[in-house]
Structures
1.
Amino acid sequence: MTLREWLHRLWGTFRRSRTDRDLEDELQIHLELAADEERRRGTPDDGAVRAARLRVGAVAQATEAQRDQRGLRWLEDLMRDLRYASRMLARSPVFTLVSVLSLAIGIGANGAVFSFADALLLRPLGVPRPGEVVTVGSSLPPLQRTLVASYRDYVDIRDRSRSFNGLVAFTECSAALGVKAGSLPKPTIGLLVSGNFFSVLGVEPELGRAFRSDEDLVAGRDPVLVISHDLWERQFGADPAILGRMVRLSGVDFTVIGVAPRGFVGLDRYTHYEFYTPLAMWPRLESDRATRPLEMRDVRRLTIKGRLASDTTLAQAQTELSVIAKDLARAYQDTNRNTLLTVRTE
Amino acid sequence: MSNRERGKADILQGTLDIMVLQTLTTLGPVHGYAIAARLEQVSNGAIHLNMGTLYPGLMRLEQRGLVRGKWGVTENNRKARFYAITAAGGRQLASERAEWERTASIMHSLLNEPQ
């Protein structure tokens, strides 16, 4: 098929240069001329048309063949099917509604599951060399997959293990964030993090500084805050004079010391955390006054992550953690008797 | 349409174009029936086109700009669609004719090669 023919046929699909009637007329004349000739040859009148038809073929088939040539048959069929489908759908609106909704829900659910799987399985953490990052902790029976630890366990593991290039700990914290006096505080989710959080993960604040190690030493002493890039833009208009500003988190005054880089929103794919403050501030942000999260070994609410030391395998790290777990179980029978420690990759 | 029939139609298609173009060159503008009758006559009845082959073929030639069709009136005062060869059709015929002659001469010398 030449391009010119194809364009003609594409055009012929939408705008008929020759109608069906026109095609049929031409064939009808052909048939008549053939019948005339039959008569000239002496075929009786009633047999002439039949004889002619036998000789030149039937009008219906020929019309069909011409139609195939006139347009693009598949396109014509497709348009006819679409017109038919929309007529049928319009005729039974309830069926249509149910079908459309089923499809919409099905496709939507599929998309949701995929984006979940995408975030969970396929997208790396927003930190440099995410493949090195491992998670350490104990699985609590009801939460088999999740590894958690208490603050005291974290400190022991951090100080005794040799398998890691640093271990960080963090836990989620929701607080009412007041940006200035008199304004309505907004519920905000952030992370309480160990002092080495940014340095071990290799995340450099975009503005200001990360925490110093001494800011995570004394409970409640250093109310310093690193805020997310988003929060900085949204609440403070990306004001570079943000450093040193006071904001209130659940009634406690904090000093903003840094802004996290754009795109870094913590280590959880489903929550975009808006602020970071040292774990030492945990008691002052904890709503349940009876909980002493920094002292009680059975308050297991921290996630521990770290990077494996370069010459260490996962199995070696696991062996070391098992020894530490055994020691802790012996030393703190009340809280750690049945507590194992596990390390695994993301 | 079965594959076999399609195969047959395809073989015909290549020759049909040149036959129709040549006929129009010889006869001037004529209607489809005259083309079919002429081909039948020239081939002594060996070529017999039915409408399902002839008219789609004419339409294809028209779409490719090689012939032009127009409604007119026959000498018996009958309305009919007359086909005329275009300039592009003439060029196409010349090139196809050359190709055919080349093929034929090759075949001829091949088949008459001394043993």
2.
Amino acid sequence: MKLLVAVKRVIDYNVKIRVKPDKTGVETANVKMSMNPFDEIGVEEAVRLKEAGAATEVIAVSMGPQACQETIRTALAMGADRGIHVLSDAELQPLAVAKLLKAIAAKEQPQLVILGKQAIDDDSNQTGQMLAALLGWAQGTFASKLKLEGGKALVTREIDGGLETVELKLPAVMTTDLRLNEPRYASLPNIMKAKKKPIEQLSPEALGVEVAPRLVTLKVEEPQKRQGGKKVASVQELVDKLKTEARVI
Amino acid sequence: MALLVVAEHDNQSLKSSTLVAVAAAAAIGGEIHVLVAGHNAKPAAEAAAKAAGVAKVLLAENPAYEHLLAEDIAALVVTLAPSYSHVLAPASTFGKNFLPRVAALLDVAQISDISGVVSPDTFVRPIYAGNALATVQSKDKIKVISVRGTAFPPAEAKGGNAPIETVGGAGSAGLSRFVGAELSKSERPELTSARVIVSGGRGMQSGDNFKLLESLADKLGAAVGASRAAVDAGFVPNDYQVGQTGKIVAPELYIAVGISGAIQHLAGMKDSKVIVAINKDEEAPIFQIADYGIVGDLFKIVPELDAELAKRRGS
């Protein structure tokens, strides 16, 4: 079976972001960019399924400016077979991305689409669920375990109260949580090999998808800074302060 | 204008996250209806009817709704949504799971995890792990919104007397099936609604050592949480995780033990009223946001703190 994995190019998780002085957004120029960590977990899971013989092909998809090809190359170096890049310099919001992925799913006919549960830039946590709804498919979100058997997917999900397992009819959409696996580092030979793997470039127009944003960002601001940094010397002093100064115990 | 709040519940009772979503709906303004979809969920519906500010409760009874599967709940909500200007749900794993399906089927954007209401079409939401706040305006006819659990004081659980109306629903679409759940059982309060939280990080070194924190938590009536590092290391289960992609909490008192303070963790707790940090590394970023920091070995300081609290309680 074919697997489709969506990968997003985001500001690296180690970067302390800066809000632009004109409040239009967050500074992205000269900032280290990486694959969204949850998407790395998605690529890893897909590649493991292929290595285990449960999948025949892994296709990595990314959307956005030309530089997204780097993110696709990372996925190819991890073991994906080929890439699809939807080139767009416009802001792509989750609903538009879900529609584009739906159009690609219609072409590629994957049995499972794997996405990260959320991107660490906009923190929306929407695209996988939206895609599943648009396709009329089942979904297994926030997955910490996946088992394919008898034409179904058993997905264990991280939920607020603990873990939940659902059985999904295939084809289906799964979104990854942190404990699903530990993504590999691409080896140098595999990075070299990835350069030769094909990446198909498409456009929203060619896929017949209208991507105009539905949400208008009016402004982006820094949150109020916390005043911290006080130290206390002893446990007695701490308990005194919590009782009489902060009055929380 | 009427607003629909989709209730999070366990059929028997209402989760407090629902009352937070009701409070957000009240901040937007309009007549508030609460949908309780479940199986033998009358008690949950009755609890919703008592919540302050609720004008009507819609009860959808179907065995298919017992486990609140996203595919089936979303299909039900989509049939009701056209009568409403706003559809709201808690930004818990329940709301996050089904609500984007609703938005997609209505062909509208979802506004995730709002922390403020500016006007009926304009909302504030944290992005980049809460390191920036975006003010966004929705151009869609129906606003589909998930509500951050710490952002609004919950509506009063008492004082209302709303009528309960039964609504039909298609039931199971047959796409997915609930197989089972392993829910953490604890006598302690839930993380997201606890007044005090004691959280442990990688510095705890083992799951066994969390007993130190549990003893402390019992003296403070606190919930126990953890950083991602502690969960990844297998010290504690996933539902302990506080942070950008785990639980967002804002208790009166947050005690961070052996947690260095990665931005992803701070994202989940920096709105706590008072933060205490215990860490042996003086340079740990957690100290920059802590109201009270103690530099030292947690294995010495935590038992001392435990004893001090026991002593003062006794006196």
